[in-house]
Amino acid sequence: MKSDIEIARSIELKKIKQVAETINIPRDEVENYGRYIAKIPESLIDEKKVAKSKLILVTAITATKAGIGKTTVSIGLTLGLNKIGKKAVVALREPSLGPCFGMKGGAAGGGYAQVLPMEKINLHFTGDFHAITSAHNMISALLDNYLYQNQANGFGLKEILWKRVLDVNDRSLRKVVTGLGNKTDGVTQQSGFDITPASEIMAILCLASDLDDLRRRIENILLGFTYDNKPFTVKDLGVAGAITVLLKDAIHPNLVQTTENTAAFVHGGPFANIAHGCNSILATKMAMTFSDYVVTEAGFGADLGAEKFYNIKCRKSGLNPALTVIVATAQGLKMHGGVSLDKIKEPNLEGLKEGLRNLDKHVRNLKAFGQTVVVAFNKYASDTDEEMALLRSHCENDLKVGFAINNAFAEGGEGARELAELVADTIEKKPSLPLKHTYDDADKVEQKIEKVATGIYGASVITYSTIARNKIKLINEMGISHYPICIAKTQYSFSADAKIYGAVNNFEFHIKDIVINNGAEMLVAIAGEIMRMPGLPKNPQALHIDIVDGQIEGLS
Asked: How far apart are CA 96 and CA 82, in angstroms?
């Protein structure tokens, strides 16, 4: 079979205004970024049409380092729905350059279920990530300048919370010292870098309802505390307007196309292990305005992405998925069943059976939200008929949920026809109930954390560092305990220990710190050894990315 990039190049793309016309977006509202990419103004969102559209969430079992294939399934399901005569659009996150040049090599789907042009989407795209990086670091520069210019007046911050960001994986930047040199080179202080998808501005962009809301949220970003314990925000700097200017184009959702020339919105890209892991509310609502069915995904496993999708994105936007698809692979299940990573491609029914406990726990969690659930088996060439039959029987007879094999990677929309028919039929006969959130806005911060950690993850004891307890006290004093919580933890386990696979229960869950995202209006609880600036692996994907005869190679 051809590589992803070879398949992408073999597709004859439609001009983006033609793609827009297929879903009734007026040509004069399309702002071209070249021939095959455009931005669409959020003013076109129609809440009445949004309310009539059917939203489908795609999530997955606990992640493996090779991934489970949510994006491929999301795109494939959209293609399949169009194959069976439904009007469907997919809404996805933008890829980050850090993982692209680190381990993943790209995040635009795979095989014959991709969003295109994949090289541009995986690289600089429309510049949204660069705009977010610039906006974030502009605040850093303006804050440092404010401290420098006002130090003679006795002004200072006893604690600075705002770091810098770059869209790279670079462990050397996690902790840095700024302002070294002469007195005119700034105020010397310890700082650091996060990766751009972890920026609060990324979360703000993905949660904002319009440009005015974007500015309001930027004003509320908490930068630090004065020596008399008063919060110091972007509003105090007086630069919210300037930062909003940097984001005025980035806020518009991006329109591209799939390998079968159907419309796709790709916008925003927070990670789910360190942020809330969903594409922008604006892109989702734009897709729902112009389509009867919208497929979207949430990052990593359902314990992270789906939980945050329901408890943060849906809570903030009023969205309610009609159905949730959970993706499983035989390799992933065998890994969670205790099979060594070097043998998960080999047939192993016993290992697969053991791994079903991970799937079962995720399905129970999803049903607890009131969601109707179907399982999509993402097929690989090494999978056997016996393994697929075992999983189908388990889902249909034991879990009482629908099951379909997805082969969109190899066959495009035709390979997702079974899944599309199952999804459409299930929505017609048994759509999801109104969402049942894990916690209430009025719950205490500790209650919110504990309800997620015990109810979703399976923890039995929740512990807090002194730093975390002091942050909770501060949150209460600031009157923001009503914010939803966003737990940052490993994506490889229900616990905070990346090495514990399967469906672990009755473990201690420790909260090290809580980051106050006052602009995004959420509280990020840090659990375990989670890094907001990833490092590169020993052999990064960048070693394989090159230009050969004018063509980019190495992206996938």
From this structure: 28
All structural domains of the chain, each given as residue ranges with its CATH number in brackets, are 4-126+250-429 (3.40.50.300), 128-246 (3.30.1510.10), 445-527 (3.10.410.10)
Report how far residue 127's alpha carbon sits from residue 529's, in angstroms, rounded to the nearest whole number: 31
Residue 224: predicted pLDDT: 97
Q: Per-residue pLDDT tens for 46-85? A: 999 999 999 999 999 998 877 789 999 999 999 999 999 9
- The residues of the chain scoring below 50 in pLDDT are none
Amino acid identity at 174: R
- Could you check whether the bond before residue 117 is cis, i.e. omega within 30 degrees of 0? yes
403 DSSP 8-state letter: E
Tell me the torsion sign for CA atoms 537, 542, 543, 545.
positive
pLDDT tens-digit series, residues 154-201: 899 999 999 999 999 999 999 999 999 999 999 999 999 999 999 999
Residue 226, SS3? strand
Contact indicator for 77, 295 with CB cutoff of 8 Å = yes
Distance CA 530, CA 248 (A): 32
Give CA separation, 140 vs 173, 414, 465, in Å.
15, 49, 28
Per DSSP, the chain holds a count of helices (H) and strands (E) of 21, 25
Q: How far apart are CA 317 and CA 526, in angstroms?
A: 25
Neighbours of 277 (CB within 10 A): 29
> 257, 386, 408: which is closest to 327 by C-alpha?
408
Residue with tokens 């949510």: 70
Q: Report pTM.
A: 0.95
Closest CA to 107 of 120, 90, 117, 94: 94
